[in-house]
Model the fold of this input.
Amino acid sequence: MTSDWARFGIEPGWAFAIQHRVRWSECDPFGHANHRAYFEWFEEARNRYLEAVGLAPLSPNAPGPVIAETSIRYHRPLAYADEMLVSARTVRLGRTSFDMEYAVWRAGLCALGRAVLILVVNITGEKTPLSAELRERVLALDPAARSGGPQ
Done:
């Protein structure tokens, strides 16, 4: 897929991306991709990224990511049938949390998102430390992810 990265205008520093085409159902009455759609694209990229780094499949008993905070900045609109790449990367590793960034690319940057995620056992709500193995796999994909923060 990296051969497509230049076509979509992905900037250096991203190692993971998925392709998507804007569906009719993702557009608002003005013909733009709706803001909700961007968060769904980020969710899909995040889940596939986490699968790629070996996080266990989501279940009530296994630690999984819970969003504590999220944001998005729009740069250029997208419309029905636009082809794009949605990239994901980890930018910070804490003890029980990590920060991710997401970007949507089509001839350059269209939107940039960020999320703070906490690793939680959903059935109990207990925060869980990131394992050494998970940290290693994340750093293998995103060497620039830095440790930080007390969480």
Notes: Residues 41 and 86 are 7 Å apart (CA to CA).
